[in-house]
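Residues determine shape. Take a concrete instance:
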Amino acid sequence: MKHLSKIYLLAFLVFADITAFAGPGDDTGGGELGGGDPPATPINTYLIVMIVLGLLMGFYSFKKTQKSN
């Protein structure tokens, strides 16, 4: 019974995720969902800054765990 409830929970989470991010779109009447593509998102704007901050945070975490041991 416990195994079955885990399967139900997993199925619910998967299908809830799919429906949460599925947008309805605009029906143009010709069978297509119209509007065209949205403008591109500049992902790489602060990529170098995020990499440096991630490395610094990892180094800080590593040193913090070394001191506690």
The helical segments are 2-21, 47-68. The chain has a mean pLDDT of 77. Residues 47-68 form the longest helix (22 residues). Residues 2 and 12 are 15 Å apart (CA to CA).
